[in-house]
Design brief:
By secondary structure, this protein is mostly helical. Helix content is about 75%, strand content about 5%. The chain has a domain of about 100 residues. The protein is built from two helices and two strands. The protein has a two-stranded antiparallel ribbon with strand order 1-2. This is GH15932.
Length: about 150
């Protein structure tokens, strides 16, 4: 036979010992909007406490090892996934270097050589034109030249 239901009542923390101003001060300092509620029952502890203790004992005896195993497996899976991701990134980096970076680097070197050769040809051609103009000027404006003014 079940015992009669115990009557529980709500006890407000500001009921007897604290005033409204003290309660407001407590609310401001704790930062909580609602004051904590305290439930008291005359027979609740006798019924729930043994069940709670048994539950805690069951957890300590039967559940800690599976929880520890679960987190250890999670850790190992995370390590494995991290290692797999690192190897995947290394493979992708190698493929990128082979297919994109190395051809670009080769073409860059070729382009720089082409530009240097073009600049050298331009400089050589400019120097050759200056020498020819100097010789032509010497011939035309020299003491025996047709345009001699002096």
């Amino acid at each position: 036979m079940l015992p009669q239901r115990q009557r529980c009542h709500f006890k407000h923390p500001a009921s007897k010992s604290t005033s409204a101003s003290t309660l407001n001060l407590n609310l401001m300092t704790t930062g909580r909007d609602v004051p904590p509620r305290i439930w008291t029952c005359s027979g609740l502890n006798h019924e729930v406490k043994p069940l709670y203790d048994r539950y805690q004992r069951e957890i300590e005896l039967n559940l800690w090892e599976p929880i520890n195993r679960f987190w250890a497996e999670c850790y190992e899976a995370c390590k494995g996934a991290s290692k797999q991701r690192a190897s995947f990134q290394a493979t992708n980096r190698r493929v990128f270097q082979q297919k994109i970076y190395m051809p670009w680097k080769v073409r860059q070197v070729e382009e720089m050589q082409r530009l240097q050769n073009a600049a050298l040809q331009h400089k050589t051609n400019d120097s050759h034109i200056r020498k020819r103009w100097k010789a032509a000027k010497r011939f035309l404006y020299g003491p025996r030249g047709p345009w001699f003014t002096g």
